[in-house]
Amino acid sequence: MTMVAVPGNDARLHPDRPVRRLIGTAVVLSPHRLLTTASMAIPGGLFSVLVGDGLKRRAELRGVDRQSNVALFSVEGAPLPPLRQASPQSIAPGSWVAVISNVNVTRPQITLGQVAARGERVDFPYSGDIVEIEATTAPGASGGAVLNEAGDWVAIVVGRAGKEPPRAAAPVVQPGDPGAAQQPADLLIALPVDQLQRIADDLEQYGSVRHAFLGIQMRRGILPDSLGALVDGVVPKSPAATAGLQPGDRILAFEGNVIHSAEEITSLVGSFRPGDEIEMTISRGNDIFPVRTTLDAAVRAPALRPHSDRDAELKQLHQSLETLESETKQVEERIHKLEGSR
Predict the structure, then answer these.
(1) Angle value at C-alpha 127, between 121 and 131, nearest 5 degrees
(2) For 279-314, what is each residue's pLDDT tens digit?
(3) Which residue(s) pair with 187 in the sheet?
């Protein structure tokens, strides 16, 4: 889908000036929800979606996650057909994919590419699973859908990087960054559908993405015997404290994954959601035992006020206006009586 964002101040304060528009690509997640990049979420902006044949629908921002560079919008009107989703495991390194993006308003662009790698990137703020796709595209590919060889939706493009030079990581360029237009789009950064669904659910309910929290301070780096991560401290009333972890404990395994460093714990916790139950294998003195606990939210984001229906909101505003007019009339009558009694 083609998505258009217009700065609200430009449209309201300068109606005679040419309107500056930001055009991007969005993917239909469900009949009334769209996913696109966070760069489209202009604060105070006006948003719309082009649905074909020159038709345009109003869109409303539901939430933004700057770390993953994902924004969720709701769309009014008749239901939109969502893309058929596939297992994210169908985009293993070496597999061929198609990237569909709206680099111009008239028609989409389809580019073939190949999955180069999967995993984390140290230069991208999102800590979850990332898919790297080698494909040549024009600026505007961010927000585009990634399809597997069967034509099923497997990921969304959330950033670009150049060819990786020897001994150096290719910097990620997100839409709107200075120099984004000049950056060769040889390596696309995409998020698989399973993570997108979790991000969208949090944005729908909270307006932001909640990150899992265990509540331990760890000694960084690899231990001398290269097994486990040493607990230096435990946050009071945290999931780790509830599980009974103590300073000096060594975490040997996390959900069946053998641990060799504190960084591995951080990465694994980041792959879970608040409310998920996890199991760890702990070494304390001569004892080795399992513990279970439920992860909490790193930042307790207050629930957003539900998006009100426009008709209900207009009705409430009209009622408030009528009440104000009635009170104004009573004040005016009181003033007239006081003036007449002089």
Answers:
(1) 50
(2) 999 999 999 999 999 998 865 433 334 344 455 555
(3) 134, 161
Handedness of CA 63, 126, 220, 223 (dihedral sign): positive
Strands 172-173 and 277-284: unpaired
Among residues 47, 75, 103, the one where a domain terminates is 75
Range of the domain at 322: 308-342
Give the end of a domain, one of 75, 107, 129: 75
Pull the structure tokens for residue 38.
Answer: 């966070």
The predicted-structure confidence for 117-171, as pLDDT tens digits, reads as follows 877 666 676 766 788 899 887 766 788 999 998 889 999 999 887 554 433 444 4
Backbone angles phi, psi at 242, to 5 degrees: -60, -35
Residues 9 and 97 in one domain: no
The CATH code of the domain that includes 240 is 2.30.42.10
**Structural domain tally of the chain?**
4
